[in-house]
Each structure stands twice: as structure tokens, then as C-alpha cells.
Specification:
The protein is α+β, with helices and mostly antiparallel strands. The protein has 13 helices and 17 strands. A hairpin with a 5-residue loop joins strand 3 (about 150-160) and strand 4.
């Protein structure tokens, strides 16, 4: 059966006995007991049961309150343990210093970092672990901290118990103890050695990067989203009249010496590049320098992206192209002058060409006329000399007969010279009839013409390789073989066994042909004279000839886009070579008449 507490005695206004403090509950119970004794109410026998019941209720309440108190105390103890764990293993060192700088409390992180048990730190100054070089700075910051009461953060060099140094950052706040009226400061110690090293590396990297940028001849700059300058190199700073790149930071184009319209154009380009996310290249524009002079610049701008790939600004690079613009203007003026001069030169060339064509026609007519006019008296001289020598031989002595023979020989030589000169002249002017030429057959035919007698051919050792075909005029190339082989026969005739070799092969896109003999040869010192008109290395009486044959060879080969050369040694024979393009030269045609200049040549000997 449950008990119900009796109501309090009349006149007693009793508050509920609910509290968490045992001392307070006891004091309330004693107060009530004293009040009942004074009233005499509790002595009445009929009130004894209610009083007992009330005491039991109070006892139960006290037990419940004690249980709650124990739970609270246990929770506080667990919270304190958790706090101490967090406090001791925090990533930074914690300490409480008094106003003299003595350590009152320290966590395990701090003591472990500095080296030693917790008991070795309490009551000792923290400055013992500050590097001597940093102690003055440390004490000054500590003094200001207690004087001003404002939080302070500063870096000092710390030294551990084993002498190891590291860079530490101290963050301190002042704490006033209301109960004792004393002051202390709570300090956190963070090892910032790696951070400082990283900051130093970043600073050094920025310095190297700035040095690299400053060494670049182009002007370089970068801006934020609002076209405010974040930096630039020294070249750009000089153009802006600032010289120090640091002074560019936080300026806009309107703060620099550019004209207003120039600044507006620059910012419009910035907005276009940042808005589109694409570069804008080769922006050719004017820029006013700090000294008031103008220059031309060629600018390229690209979006400046952050780590997430979002546009955070613009990067620009430009070249000073003022000299180039001047050169372009000068070139334009030169081209205009050249055009005028070219037109004038072309007009003069047309006039001179017409005059030259007329002169060539006159020269051709003159050559034809001269050849006929000279041949008639030469034939008459040769014929009359022969008749006198034959009809009046009895009237002439040996000297007279010798003189008439000399007249005939010179008249015949003069005739051959006229024929060779006409052939040399016509080789320049004649139309080329181009086609495939069997060079093996042409060489053998030319040898037969050079040595018509069978007996003479039999004493000469001739070898002709299987020669590559050529593309050209068969008649003119036949004249080349005639002259080269007749020369080989002539200059090797004095040998006991004359030997002539004709060779040919393809070398590097050219057909090369060679005529070797074992004749008298020549001195290479005079090789340049071989292919000139009338240039002879041997006497007329020693070896017959007009001195035109090799010059004719050179003219014909050159007209076909080839070249000629010779090698020899006195007494050991000679080799005459010529080359022709394997394919027909692009500029070669059957209409090459006029001056007969082959492609790539400027003159014909």
C-alpha cells in the first residue's frame, strides 16, 4: 500500500524539496524540523505516521538525487578525460604561462616536441627553449602581450632539449583569473619549419620566375577578371614608365600612360578573351609610351585559368614591332619604286630586244653574205694556185712550189675556219628539234666520219659502252660527238697504238658521257682555255684545227641544259666529259632561238 505524504502543518509554506546539492537539502530539512518544534505540531500523536511517511519520502528523494549526482559526476569525469586526451594529443602544443613567462601547464604535444616529461616544464620559463638569437624578440612580444592584452602571433626559432632547432609560431591570448586577480596567457606552439621552407621555396620560385620573365624581350602581363593588373615583367614595366614590376600590381590600363581610347581597346580585348575562353592572337595596335612617343605592338592574349579550369583573368604577351612597321612601310615604298623601275626596265628590255633581234637578223645576213663573199676569192686563190703549180711546175723552183703549196694550205684552212665559225654562230640561233637520241649509235657514226679510211680505223683501239639515250637535238648532239672523237683521234695519232674509250652512265639525275684517249694530253693549268673560241694549247703545224670545235661543243651542250669539262695530264692522255639532264629541262623547247641562252645561264662563250 502506497503511502501518501501528509500535508504540511497549518501555516507552513513548504517549497518542494528538489535540489541537486546535498548540503542544501540538509539545510532545508533542518529548517523545517525547527519550524515544527516551535509550533508543537509534530508532537501530536496523530501526526507521527505522516511525519514518518514524509521522512521516508525525503530519504527516497535524497537517494535519487545522490544517484543523479553520481551520474553527473561520472559524466563530468569522462568529459574531463576526453578533454585531457584532446588537449594532450592536439596537433599543436598548448601551454599556460604566468605573467613572468613561467609554464603553469603544458600538453604532451608541446613537451614531446621540446623533449622531456611534463614535470620538467611546470614552473620553468618557456624562453629556455627559445634560440638565443630569438629571445629578445620573444620577450618583447610577451611584454607587449601583457601590456596591451591583445592577442599576439609571432615566429621564433625554438631549440629542443637535444639541441635540434625548428621554426615555431606562438599564438598567445591573455586570460584574467577573476578569483585570484592574477593574469596568465594561453599559448599555442606550432612547428612551421616545413611551412616556412615551403614559403621560402615559393618565394624563391617566384623570384626565379620573375627573373625569367624579366629576361624575356617580349612584354608580359596578367590581369584579373576586372582587368586589374596582377603582375608583369620588367619589359612591360619599362613600357609603362614604372620600371619596377611590383608597381604594376593593382593598377588598371587607365592608370598607365596609354591613351584613353587605347585603354578602352585593351579592356575590350580582355573581355572578349575572358568571355569566349579562346585566345586572341596578333592584335596589331598602337601604344603610347611613358615618354610620349608611339610604338606599334603585336599582342596575343589567352585566358588565365585556375586549378578548376575556370577563367580567372587574362595573360598577355606583345612584341614591339615598330621597326617592323617602319620596314614594311619602307618595303612598300621600295616595292612601288621597284614596280616603276621594273616597268621602265621592261620597256627598255623590249626596246633592246627588238634592237638585238634586228641586229641578229642583220648579223645573220652579214654572216651569210661574208661567207659567200669570202669563199669565192678563197676558192679562186686555191684554184689558181693549183693551176699555176700544175701548169707551170717546170718554171718554178722548189721554193716557188713550196710557196704556192703554203698559199693553198692557208686558203683551205681559211675556208674551214669560215665553216666552223658559221657552224658556231648557227648553233646559238638554230631551232632545236628535240627527241630521244641514241647516243651509242651517234658516237659510232661520229667516229666513222672522223676516220673515214678503213686502214686508219684499224690501227685505233676504240671501245664504246652501251650509252644511255639522251633527250635533245640529234643533229647538234652528233656534232658534239664528231668534235670530241676527231680531237681524240687527232691528239692520239702519234701513239704506237692509239686507244679511245667512250663511256656513259646515269649519275644523280644526269646522263654523263666521257671520251678518253691516250694522246698527248694537256696541262690542267690551262684547262679553262680549252673551250674558248680560237684558244689552242698546241701549235697549228703540230696539230691541225681552227680552235672552234670545243667552243662549239660547249655551246651545244649548254643549250641542252648541260655542262662540259675536261681532265688531262701532259703525255698521259685526256678525258673530255659532258652531261645532259635525264629528262628534258622545263625551260627547253624547240623555239629557243634568239640568243640561244639555255636555262640558268647568263652568257654563251
Amino acid at each position: 500500500m502506497s503511502r501518501v505524504a501528509a500535508p504540511p502543518p497549518p501555516g507552513e509554506n513548504r517549497p518542494p524539496l528538489v535540489t541537486t546539492a546535498p548540503q542544501t537539502v540538509r539545510e532545508e530539512a533542518e529548517r523545517r524540523l525547527a519550524a515544527r518544534k516551535a509550533s508543537g505540531h509534530w508532537r501530536k500523536p496523530e501526526n507521527i505516521p505522516s511525519l514518518l511517511h514524509e521522512l521516508e519520502v525525503h530519504q527516497i528523494e535524497l537517494e535519487l538525487q545522490n544517484e543523479e549526482l553520481r551520474r553527473t559526476q561520472n559524466e563530468l569525469e569522462r568529459s574531463r578525460e576526453r578533454y585531457l586526451d584532446l588537449y594532450d594529443v592536439a596537433p599543436v602544443g598548448y601551454a599556460v604561462l604566468d605573467d613572468k613567462g613561467l609554464i603553469q601547464e603544458a600538453n604532451l604535444t608541446l613537451t614531446s616536441r621540446l623533449g622531456g616529461p611534463r614535470t620538467a616544464f611546470v614552473g620553468r620559463p618557456l624562453r629556455r627553449f627559445v634560440d638565443p638569437a630569438s629571445q629578445d624578440s620573444y620577450l618583447l612580444h610577451l611584454q607587449r602581450l601583457f601590456e596591451t592584452g591583445e592577442p599576439s602571433s609571432f615566429d621564433v626559432d625554438m631549440v629542443t632539449k637535444d639541441g635540434t632547432s625548428f621554426r615555431g609560431r606562438l599564438d598567445a591570448v591573455v586570460h584574467d583569473d577573476d578569483s585570484s586577480g592574477s593574469r596568465s596567457c594561453r599559448v599555442t606552439l606550432t612547428d612551421v619549419t616545413d611551412l616556412k621552407r615551403a614559403e621560402e621555396d615559393v618565394r624563391a620560385g617566384k623570384e626565379v620566375l620573375q627573373n625569367v620573365l624579366d629576361s624575356v624581350p617580349q612584354a608580359i602581363f596578367w590581369k584579373d577578371r576586372n582587368s586589374v593588373y596582377l603582375g608583369g615583367n620588367r619589359t612591360f614595366a619599362r613600357a609603362a614608365g614604372l620600371f619596377d614590376p611590383e608597381k604594376i600590381v593593382r593598377k588598371t590600363d587607365f592608370d598607365l600612360p596609354w591613351r584613353t581610347e587605347e585603354a578602352e581597346a585593351y579592356r575590350a580585348d580582355d573581355a572578349q578573351v575572358m568571355g569566349s575562353g579562346f585566345p586572341k592572337r596578333h592584335i596589331v595596335e598602337r601604344q603610347r609610351k611613358a615618354d610620349g612617343t608611339d610604338l606599334w605592338i603585336d599582342t596575343t592574349k589567352v585566358p588565365l585559368l585556375d586549378a578548376r579550369g575556370e577563367v580567372r583573368g587574362v595573360l598577355g604577351v606583345y612584341d614591339d614591332i615598330t621597326e617592323r612597321k617602319r620596314d614594311e612601310e619602307a618595303l612598300r615604298e621600295s616595292e612601288e619604286r621597284y614596280r616603276r623601275l621594273s616597268d621602265e626596265l621592261e620597256r627598255r628590255v623590249r626596246e633592246r630586244t627588238a634592237e638585238l633581234e634586228e641586229a641578229n637578223r642583220e648579223l645573220g645576213a652579214f654572216s651569210y653574205s661574208i661567207s659567200h663573199e669570202l669563199r669565192s676569192p678563197l676558192r679562186a686563190i686555191d684554184g689558181f694556185s693549183a693551176r699555176v703549180s700544175d701548169s707551170h711546175a717546170g718554171l718554178l723552183d722548189d721554193e716557188g712550189r713550196r710557196l704556192f703549196a703554203e698559199v693553198r694550205w692557208n686558203a683551205q684552212r681559211m675556208g674551214r675556219l669560215i665553216d666552223d665559225l658559221l657552224a658556231f654562230s648557227r648553233a646559238r640561233d638554230v631551232d632545236l628539234s628535240l627527241g630521244s637520241v641514241n647516243m651509242t649509235g651517234a658516237a659510232r657514226a661520229a667516229f666513222a666520219l672522223a676516220v673515214p679510211e678503213e686502214a686508219s680505223r684499224s690501227r685505233i683501239s676504240l671501245s664504246v659502252d652501251d650509252l644511255p639515250d639522251a633527250h635533245g637535238d640529234a643533229r647538234l648532239l652528233g656534232r658534239v660527238w664528231e668534235n670530241l672523237l676527231s680531237n681524240a683521234v687527232k691528239f692520239s695519232a702519234g701513239r704506237e697504238k692509239p686507244e679511245i674509250q667512250v663511256e656513259g652512265d646515269i649519275l644523280g639525275g644526269e646522263a654523263v658521257y666521257r671520251v678518253r684517249d691516250n694522246g698527248v694530253g694537256f696541262d690542267m693549268e690551262y684547262v679553262d682555255k680549252l673551250f674558248g673560241v680560237f684558244h689552242r694549247l698546241h701549235g697549228q703545224r703540230e696539230f691541225e684545227g681552227t680552235g672552234v670545235g670545243l667552243a662549239l661543243v660547249r655551246r651545244i651542250v649548254t643549250r641542252h641544259g648541260g655542262k662540259v669539262w675536261a681532265e688531262g695530264e701532259v703525255g698521259k692522255g685526256a678525258t673530255f666529259s659532258f652531261s645532259l639532264p635525264v629528262a628534258a629541262p622545263s625551260g627547253l623547247s624547240t623555239s629557243l632561238k634568239k640568243l640561244g641562252l639555255p636555262p640558268g645561264t647568263t652568257s654563251v662563250p
